[in-house]
Amino acid sequence: MTRPVSNVPKHVAIIMDGNGRWAERRHHPRVFGHIRGSAKIKPIVQEADRLGIKALTLYAFSTENWSRPETERSVLWRLLKKYLLRERDGLNEKNVRLHVIGELERLESEVRAIVEETLEMLKNNTGLQLSFAISYGSRRELVRAARRFAEDCLAGRQVPEAMDEDVMAGYLWTSDLGSLRDVDLVIRTSGEKRISNYLLWQAAYAEFSFLDLCWPDFGPEHLRAAVEEYGNRDRRFGRIKSEN
Ligand code: FPP
Q: What's the pTM?
């Protein structure tokens, strides 16, 4: 029996970093790190659900990752396909809903078809909201939102005065998450301490946890520890009195 955790963050976003370094330190090709890293997703999703986290967003592929060699990219797409095909029945049984944030249209048709099929299959689920950020970049997301809002204004569906923080949030890829769209806790593995174009709007008031271990070494116990530590933090959102 594991002890219950209080003050659980509603939305946790993870930068699964350090796969390449993990493999290189072991004199393996970088892709070996991605293979090990992809095996860590299932136990982390299960633990997130057990902890009572409502939304979990995982950074799987950034807009910048397109500049990686084709061989590495194709392994990442193969791992994504395998993960979805292998796990989607189990996710469905657990009432997990899947979201994808990012430029889905840039994916090759076979990967995109599997992603879309899985989104459809899990679309009525109401439990953990699991998002994969794929071909995602926050700046791209904000530029696209601005462009779509401008188009809506030109078409008469919107007026400039209507723009506020809520309206803006509705134009972002995370809009489907509704009240869960703001991120409470960002976890980054690998020891790097940066945000790397990830959820810049959504994480405006997030707490951060930078862990000195690579993603393939990250386990449910580390997620639990980060969540427990979050529970002890004083979140003031710019005010004097804390609010959690
Ligand atoms: C960062 O490590 C990780 C990625 C760019 C991809 C994350 C992908 C996975 C965990 C596997 C994909 C599987 C699914 C199911 C989405 P890095 O290569 O940047 O590591 P480095 O900084 O040490 O080079």
A: 0.95
